[in-house]
Design a protein that fits this description.
Length: 527
């Protein structure tokens, strides 16, 4: 039985997931790198947060296969050496996205209504209602710099306040921007026109000092700048000089140039025009739960399913490619495997629509890696996946997309098999604005719109009245509840029912369903 070490304080959901999968879990938080090196022998999996995974730790690990950081950054892990030692490194991007997006909205409301000052005033016994006139978000122009997962979530939330949104992101497509209700504009336009500007870009060589004196000088009277990203994306000297000169501009920030430490902050010099917090973007119960769950799933899926979630040290993932698209290729591969009855494909065709087409090589590599994992239970590095697939006689075809179809940023995978008889399946998927995996089409069923999760039952049959009642009755007889269901038909009168249940559908109930509805194809799978 593989052993997992959780070397950090983490929501218990991670340990629960791993134990349910039959893995042995030890929880020893707060280990120094020296202590971790002494403990790591005998463990196949390791989960950390801020703990250091150094060369010494990796050298002491005699059977370590995977390290997962319950967070985004992996600067505390020696990724290069882990790669040399053939240790898979993963992280959990997106776990804190909603928390950061909500904090950005809280900053906007707090700053425009002057809530921090008002709170202190009331607690001090004053009643300054007449001097605390605020502003509404409704009708204001919101400029979003960076339209990735967090920026997109901010857009969704701001729409509910009736804001008009303009945004800047050099890699997002116009179709994707339109889907989230944002008009793409230049940085110069955003700083000239927006009442509120919210920053959501990573810190790298291209974004360090991205916001300088010229852009700041364009800010409108009374503008609010919100930073829940990284302090260094705004030039420090330019910002301090600008805020001293323009007393009408307000700032709300979760990040400071001095770092995450106690002590005086330069930005505090603007007094009540500043709303600040000590890097609380990910500090919610829900975000910690999601990070712990994702970390547990990462270790479990690697050791049990031979599947890599959010890889750090395999094939480099471009910064403008949402990592969940890599997971989507694996999910589509799973569905294709069941749809073909487990027969190995002889040809795989992949079509990437919209901006995804620029990443077709990366996505093809991860798709083929997933197929090798599924069909051959063989852990393959994405770099080697295509050559390995060809060794197995699988032809790989990258198709040119027809973006006039309006599929947005989605992936269609066609898999053909002729092992026993000719079979073919075609599945299209995407990710939602919230970052969830969605299957849009399965074969000729065009409007599936399914977000698979947990225990799934798929039944394909000739459509007729009463099908769902018969399936539901069979499930109920086994004490199985339906959590979600998607049902659709094709033009030939066939139907597919995709059902999420609260527990796995065992063979007796599965056989009972097959006897009741006579499907031409059915299967159960765990996502």
């Amino acid at each position: 039985m593989p052993k997992i070490l959780i070397a950090t304080k983490l929501n218990p959901v991670a340990a629960e997931l791993l134990s349910e999968a039959g893995l042995e879990v030890d929880i020893i938080p707060g280990l120094s790198d020296e202590a971790l090196a002494e403990k790591i022998a005998g463990y196949e999996g390791l989960i950390v947060r801020s703990e250091k995974v150094t060369r010494k730790v990796l050298d002491a690990a005699d059977c370590l296969q995977a390290v997962v950081r319950a967070g985004t950054g992996v600067n505390t892990i020696d990724v290069t050496y882990a790669t040399e030692k053939n240790v898979q490194v993963m992280n959990t991007p997106g776990a804190n996205s909603n928390s950061v997006a909500e904090l950005a909205m809280a900053f906007m409301l707090s700053a425009l209504r002057r809530l921090p000052y008002a709170d202190g005033s009331v607690k001090a016994g004053r009643w300054e209602k007449g001097s605390l006139m605020g502003n509404e978000l409704g009708g204001k122009v919101l400029g979003i710099v960076g339209l990735g997962n967090i920026g997109s979530l901010v857009a969704a939330k701001a729409r509910g306040f009736g804001m008009r949104m303009i945004g800047f992101d050099p890699v997002i497509s116009e179709n994707r921007a339109a889907e989230i209700g944002v008009e793409l504009r230049s940085l110069e336009d955003i700083f000239s026109e927006a009442d509120v500007i919210s920053l959501h870009v990573p810190l790298n060589d291209k974004t360090r000092g991205l916001i300088g004196a010229d852009l700041l000088s364009r800010l409108r009277q009374g503008a609010l700048l919100v930073n829940t990203a990284r302090a260094e994306t705004v030039d420090r000297d330019a910002l301090l000089a600008f805020l001293k000169e323009r007393e009408d501009v307000r700032l709300a920030t979760d990040v400071f140039y001095e770092g995450d430490v106690e002590g005086e902050k330069d930005l505090a010099g603007i007094g009540d025009r500043l709303v600040g917090s000590p890097h609380l973007g990910a500090s919610t119960v829900e975000a910690n739960y999601r990070a712990a769950r994702a970390a547990g799933e990462g270790v479990r899926d690697f050791l049990v399913k031979r599947m890599v979630r959010y890889p750090v040290n395999n094939l480099e993932v471009p910064p403008d490619l949402h990592p969940r698209f890599l997971e989507l290729t694996h999910l589509i591969g799973q569905l294709a495997y069941y749809n073909l009855g487990g027969d190995q494909p002889h040809e795989v065709r992949i079509t990437c629509y919209g901006a995804l087409n620029r990443h077709i090589d990366v996505l093809t590599s991860y798709l083929l890696k997933g197929l090798m994992d599924i069909y051959h239970n063989e852990v393959v590095n994405p770099r080697d996946a295509e050559s390995t697939a060809r060794e197995y006689g699988i032809n790989v075809v990258r198709r040119v997309p027809d973006d006039s179809k309006g599929y947005g940023e989605s992936i269609t995978i066609d898999i053909l098999s002729k092992k026993q008889e000719y079979r073919e399946t075609s599945i299209r998927g995407t990710i939602t604005q919230e970052g969830e995996l969605k299957i849009k089409r399965i074969d000729k069923f065009l409007n599936v719109d399914l977000i698979p999760s947990g225990h799934m039952l798929f039944c394909y049959q000739q459509d007729r009245v009463g099908l769902i009642n018969e399936i539901s009755s069979a499930l109920s007889s086994g004490g199985i509840n339906i959590l979600n269901i998607r049902f659709t038909t094709d033009k030939q009168g066939n139907s597919v029912a995709a059902i999420q249940t609260d527990k796995e559908v065992g063979k007796p109930i599965y056989d009972k369903i097959r006897a009741a509805v006579s499907p031409y194809k059915s299967y159960v799978m765990n996502v």
